[in-house]
Amino acid sequence: MSRPLLMIPGPVEVSPAVQAAGEAPPPGHLAPRFVESFGACLQMMRRVWLADEASRPFVVAGGGTLAMEMAVANLLEPGERALVVSTGYFSDRLVEMLRRYGAEVAEVRADEVGGAPDPDRVAAALSALRDGGAVKALLATHVDTSTGVRVDPAPLARLAREAGVLSIFDGVCATAAERFDMAGWEADVYLTASQKAVGVAPGLALLVASGRAIEARERRAGTPPPLYLDWEAWRPVMEAYEHRRAAYFSTPATTLVAALEVALREILAAGMPARFELHARAARALREAWAALGLRQVPLRDELAAHTLSALRLPAGVDASLVARIAERGVVVAGGLHPAIRSEYFRVGHMGYAVTRPEMLRRTVDAIGGALEAAGAPGDARAARAAIDAFAG
Ligand SMILES: *Cc1c(COP(=O)(O)O)cnc(C)c1O
């Protein structure tokens, strides 16, 4: 049988050109071709993030967690206050990080797993918190990979702006697939990692900070952040490469940056509106397929369901061994992650290259349909396939 198809919420399938770039001998970080490549990546990131010229892109070796840590470490000093909009496992990670940096954290949590607090509740929580003193940042997870819940960042960014509070969004399972208008919404940090919807191997933390966020770091009065995380340490390097000059602080992951250039070019060739729309259409087709197979989603309402992954409840009588049965059929999906429901659901990633290849979605739906049938919970596999065929057009 052919290589298994990787349909987890990251790492994801990458395009043949991205894979080829990742297989080349490692470029030197001072090589002219690499300097060009890194500079192009930084400029293209602004376009993918829909960010303005005052914003600053950062590419640093590490994972999404490092990108989260960079945002928190640079923007929050001990004793400063932050509000976290909590929709799952990764929001909890943000809270833990904030506490370790000595921030005072308040949370506004979803009432139940699969939900998200509505903006009115966030507004009330923010205003209550501000009654007690200045608030530095509002943080939210754009798509929480543990629940498949997507929040709408636009009203949250607006609330933050109106209150003079910085807004920080974890886009690790969203950036380059879910609509995010960093300049239009005046958001302050949007961060991700290479292995999710950007469509490169794991290993790069990607972050864009607004001019306001950069100024907030510059104004920082107390002790600086840990050196490797410090925007002030990295900024001269990023600016040098953007101007096509090499610079050094810590060796960039050169092979991954070369692959990132290819991935960002592919994303921008389609154009951001088309890219967002393709993910939305694929997600709709998959939702139809899941319904045909008798699968219910973890997100409580369709508008809360991410376009980048599906979190699906196991049908009655089917246990988590379904994931292994799906793997036997050549498709790798992920088990549960949210501690409250870990053994009750599974997750399917659908972002990046796979969404441009309907046959990959078809293989995924067929494998899940076959596994459900083998587990004694058959759905309407033909209707599921028809949903994907309609998407493929
Ligand atoms: C994957 C993910 C992370 C963590 O990224 P790593 O690269 O595994 O550190 C953080 N937040 C969200 C929403 C994610 O999906």
Which regions have little confidence, pLDDT < 50, spanning 5+ residues? none
- Rough shape? globular
Q: Over the alpha carbons, how many angstroms does the gyration radius reach?
A: 21 Å
Largest sheet: 7 strands, mixed
Counting DSSP E segments of at least 2 residues, the number of strands comes to 14
Task: List cofactors, ions and other ligands.
Answer: pyridoxal-5'-phosphate
Q: Helix tally?
A: 14
Mean pLDDT: 97
Kindly estimate the percentage of residues that lie in beta strands according to DSSP. Answer: 15-25%
Distance between the termini: 27 Å
Helix percentage range: 40-55%
SS-derived structural category: alpha/beta
Strand order of the largest sheet: 2-10-9-8-5-3-4
Please give a quick description of this structure:
This protein is α/β, with parallel strands linked by helices and 393 residues long.
Report on the architecture of this protein.
By secondary structure, the chain is of the alpha/beta class. The protein has helices spanning 16-23, 32-49, 64-75, 89-100, 119-131, 153-162, 182-185, 211-218, 231-242, 254-270, 272-292, 322-328, 358-374, 381-392; strands spanning 5-6, 56-61, 81-86, 104-109, 137-141, 143-144, 149-150, 166-170, 189-193, 204-209, 296-297, 309-313, 331-332, 345-349. The strands form four sheets. Strands 2-10-9-8-5-3-4 form a seven-stranded mixed beta sheet, with helices on both faces. A three-stranded antiparallel beta sheet has the order 11-12-14, with helices on one face. The protein has a two-stranded parallel ribbon with strand order 1-13. Helix 1 (16-23) runs antiparallel to helix 10 (254-270) and helix 12 crosses helix 13. The longest helix has 21 residues, at 272-292. It is globular. The two termini are 27 Å apart. The model has no long low-confidence stretch (mean pLDDT 97). Bound molecules: pyridoxal-5'-phosphate (PLP). Pyridoxal-5'-phosphate is lined by residues 10, 63-65, 90, 141, 144-145, 170, 172-173, 193. Pyridoxal-5'-phosphate (PLP) binds at residues 10, 63-65, 90, 141, 144-145, 170, 172-173, 193.
